[in-house]
Each structure stands twice: as C-alpha cells, then as structure tokens.
Amino acid sequence: MMSDGFKAIWAVLTVLAVIVVLWYAACIPMNIKGVLTEQERAGAEVQPTSAKDRRDMSEFGLVLNNSFAIPATWEQDRPRLPAPHQVAIEIWETTVQKKITSKRSLIYHGWVTLSATMLGFVIGTGLGILLAVGIVHSRVMDLSVMPWAIVSQTIPIIALAPMIIVVLYSVGIQGIIPKAVISAYLSFFPVVVGMVKGLRSPDAMQLDLLRTYSASRSQGFWKLRLPASMPYLFTSLKIGIAASLVGAIVGELPTGAVAGLGARLLAGSYYGQTVQIWSALFAAAILAACLVGLLGLVERTVLKRMGMAQ
Amino acid sequence: MILVLFAIVVWVLGWWLNSRLASGPYADTRLVRFLAPFIFGVTIIVIWELLVRGLEVSLVILPAPSVIAVRFANSLPILWEDFVQTIIKGAFSGYIIGCFAAFLMAIAVDRWDFLRLGLLPVGNFVAALPIVGTAPILVMWFGFDWHSKAAVVVVMVFFPMLVNTVAGLREATAMQRDLMETYAATYWQSFLKLRLPAAMPFIFNGLKISTTLALIGAIVAEFFGSPTLGMGFRISTSVGQLSLDMVWAEIVVAALAGTAFYGLVAMIEKAVTFWHPSQRG
Q1: CB contact under 8 A, A155 and B33
Q2: What is the pLDDT of residues A120-153, one digit of tens each?
Q3: Same domain, B24 and B96
Q4: Chain A contact present for B86, CB below 8 A
Q5: Which of A7, A12, A19 sits opposite B121 (nearest CB)?
Q6: CA separation for the pair B187, B181 (Å, rounded)
Q7: Is the minimum CB–CB distance between B112 and chain A shorter than 8 Å?
Q8: CATH of the structural domain A106-305, one choice from 3.30.210.10, 1.10.3720.10, 1.20.1250.20, 3.30.930.10
Q9: How distant is the Cα of A11 from the closest Cα of chain B, in angstroms?
Q10: Nearest-angstrom CA–CA distance, B215 and A297
Q11: Range of the domain at B35
Q12: Is A242 in contact with B258 (Cβ distance < 8 A)?
C-alpha cells in the first residue's frame, strides 16, 4: 500500500515537472520575435539584422541563430507566453503583498467572484433539490418537466448570460444578483438530474420493506430516499459548483464589470497584459479546486458518518 | 388583465391535461412520454406570450415568443452564417481534433502504467477547472477567426474525453483478457477485438459530454474577440444594442444545434454499442 501511494505521488510529480519543463521550452519560440526586437533596440547584435527577414523566418531558426537571447524570453514584460515563475511572482505580488481592499489584489477580485458563485450555487442547489423531490413524488411533473431538465444539459444555456445581465440591469438590479442568477441556473439542472436519480436509487426490495413497516410517504422520504440519494447529491454538487464558478466568471464579461476574476481576464486581454490573464486564470483554477476539494471533504465526512463510504 | 386571466386558464388547462395523461391508462406509452413534455413546453410559451402582452412588459426587455419567431424567420441568412462560423467551423473542428487527440493520448496512458498514475489525477483535476478562462489567451495566439475558437474547444473537450476513454479501456475483465492471452493475441489484436469495443460506452459518454462543452467553448470564446459574425459575437453585440429578440433567436439556434449535435452522437452510439444492456430492450 505504502509503496503504491508513493509511486502514484512520484508519477504525478514527474508529470507536473515535465509540464513545467515543456512550458519553459515553449516560451522560447513563442516569445523570441518580441525579444529580438527589444534586444535590437537595446543595441545587441541580432541575426538576421533586418526586421523583415526575421518576420519571414521560423521561430526555431531565430532561436538557433540567436541563442544568447534565450534567457530574455523568460523575462519579458508582456510576453506572448509568460514563464511559470513570472505568473507565480505576479500571483504572489497581487495576493500576499497587496492589501485585500486594493483594486489590484487578486484576493479582492476572487472574493467578488466567489461571493456571486456561492450565492448562486446555494439558490440553484436549493431549488434543484426541491424540484427533484417534486419530480420523484409527482407523476405529472416527472412526465412533463423531467425531459426538459435532461434536454437542458445538451444546450449551451450559458449563452443566456449576457442577456440576463443587461435585462436585470435595465430593471435596476445590478452588482452580485445578476451573476448569482447565472450561477444559480447553471448549477440548477445538474442538481435536478442527479438528485432525481439519487432519490430513485432505493430498489424495490427496500421500498417494499418500508411498506411492510406501514411507513408513510414522508417517512419513506426522510428515512430511505433522502439518505440513499446522498452519494448522487454530492456528485452533482461537484459538477454544479464548477458550473456556478464558470457562470460567475462569464457573467462578468459582457458589462465590462470592474471587479472579479472575469473582469481581470477581460481587462488583461484588452491591454495585452498576459501575465495578468494567466494569474487570473490560475486564481480561478485554484478557487475551483478549493471549492470542489471542500465538497469532496464534506462528502467523505458525511458518507462516513452515514456508513456509506467505501 | 383579461390576457393574464387567460394565461392562468391556459396553465390550469395544460396541467389538467397532463395529469389526465399521467394517471390515465396510456401513461407509459411512447406517445404520452412525448406528448406530456410537449404540452408543458407549449403551455409555457403561450403563458409567456400572454403575460408579456397582458402585463405590458416592454417588448425590448422581454420579447414575446411571437416577436422572437418573426425575428428568427426574418434573419435566417444571418443566423445561418453565424451557425456556420461558430458551430461548423469553430465547435466541430475543435471537437474532432480534441476528441481524437484525447483518444490517442488515452491509448498511450492505458499502455504505460506510469502515465496513468501520473496523468490521470492531473486530468481529473483539470476537467473540473473553468477552462473557458483560457479563451483570451488562445484568442491572442490564434487570432480572431474560428481557429482560436477551435483551439478553446480542443482544450475544453480534451480532459473529459481522456478520463472517460481511459476508464473505458480498463473495462474488460481479467478473465476476458486472459482468454485473449490464451489465443496468443497480440497487443493490437486484443486492443481492437476486446478492449476497444468494451470501451465504447465510456467513449461515447465522453463524446456526449463534450458536445455541450464544445458549443459553450465556441460561443464564450467569441466574447473575447471575433470577426463580425458568429453566434457569440451576435449575442454580445445584440445585447449591447438592446435588440434582445435577435439574442433569443440565436439562443434558439444554439438550443437546436446543441440538441441535434447530442442526438447525432447518441444515434451513432446506439448503432455502435447495440450490444450494451443500456441500449437493448
């Protein structure tokens, strides 16, 4: 067991190391043209000398001719592909070294996005569970609503996001609510579908047993269906929170919002601040990983307490 | 006010009809399974129309279904151009490249245990991340045209497809593998005749998840810059001009495209995995 775990960790670390090495390697051809232009301005000897010849040459040929410029490809101000350490430094500077209230702090922007995500996620999940309970207990709702819930999974409903922002803005609602609405409806449908599956997971034998106890419908729900649905609920919650986060980020794009990770992405792409884009992207990734990881932790604890963990 | 009352009547009528269908003797037939959601959908649309007109909601903010339908019918050429740009050029090509690349990678991952141990946790992790965020970077690298959208789609579908295919390739049991061994089957024979067919349900699961992701990627990537056509471009500019009927028309196209794309993959799945228990009966 121990050596298996060790081997797995070693394998993951190796893969990550290879990714970092490939990333540094990719920076060289990606950034070489910009670097050479800068170096020439600074007075360095660049081969070939005319900018026009360089434009027609392949990146790899340029690297071979000007190997002295390689270290500079990892130190540019606005590289096409920033090197890992540049992103790491940017993240460090905008989280630890900035006050949280500062407009340039990633923690501030992350919080703006996180609060909308969480509000939307709670609303969407709550409504989703309610609808799932309705679908399981009412044949009419099952027949008429459930197919639409399933179809909604195949549609890019995120395309509604810009409209929701603008419509809510025009009736005087702005700030966190429009983003939360988008987050809510994106997490709503996965939760409905997963929860219906979960509430239906008890088999006929178990339902029959409760009938022999002459259990009422609500007893059947609280003592059998709801506990049995927990593994399904957590699976769909993890999908739902990832969708919520995407919703909140996309919700920040169309209005030119001033705060939030999506706004950082958009501002970065307007002004060519690649390091800023990458650091916002990593902040979003870390946020998503923390949220999903937290849910996984809750899942493990709950299922263990219920005696359902494998 | 009459229209609002009428909307309530329609709601009651639709609900009554569906509950009759659901508790009637034909509740489990195919016809009712199709009819009930259809009636529900029509009821919603009729109520939407009646409420918008009855409560005199501004048609700019919430266009009535009839307004959207008229706009849809009048701008078919534009919608078609956007569809070709975003779905055919952006989403389709990205989907095919991404799924194929993930499939090849999955074979390598399956073959070398070390890769599986190392790459699969990373793949699982990345599959949960907000990958649409890479859109601004890829738009910067590949330009405004559909190539950058295809690139976003490739990145989005790669990891779900990889994780599913790897899980599928491990689906054949030890007993079945042993049987192939006793036949002295080579790696590729055993792969083509046993493990690949056994993996098909998983592969199609990945392909189906990826259809929606591909459309999301292609549309959202256009919010970060595009030529003057495309569904994401049309949605964001029409929202800016407050012509929301156009936005709704594009959303109808997106919905139809999404369902059709998914349906197509599901149909191929049915033909390929006809032997699987979930497809029989």
Answers
A1: no
A2: 999 999 999 999 999 988 888 888 888 888 888 8
A3: no
A4: no
A5: A12
A6: 9
A7: no
A8: 1.10.3720.10
A9: 4
A10: 32
A11: 2-57
A12: no
Answer whether B130 sits within 8 Å of A288, measured CB to CB: yes
* Co-location of B11 and B78 in the same domain: no
pLDDT tens across B19-56, in order?
888 787 777 778 888 888 888 898 899 888 888 888 88
Residues in chain B: 281
Q: What's the rounded Cα separation, in Å, for the pair A216 and B174?
A: 46
To 10 degrees, the CA torsion angle through B90, B95, B98, B104? -150
- Look up the pTM and report it: 0.86
Domain boundaries along the sequence of chain A: 2-81, 106-305
pLDDT digits (tens, 9 = 90+) for B80-106: 999 999 899 989 999 999 999 999 999
Give the pLDDT band (50/70/90) at residue A310: low
Which residue matches tokens 């810059």? B225
How close does chain B come to A289, measured CA to CA in Å?
7
pLDDT score, position A1:
47
**pLDDT value at position A255?**
62
Tell me if B231 and A159 make a contact (CB, 8 A cut-off).
Answer: yes
Say yes or no: B86 and B153 in one domain. yes
Phi, psi angle pair for A79, to nearest 5°: -70, 160
Does A145 sit within 8 Å of B37, measured CB to CB? yes
Cα–Cα distances (Å) from B43 to A62, B11, B276, in that order, read 65, 6, 37
Closest Cα in chain B to A166: B239
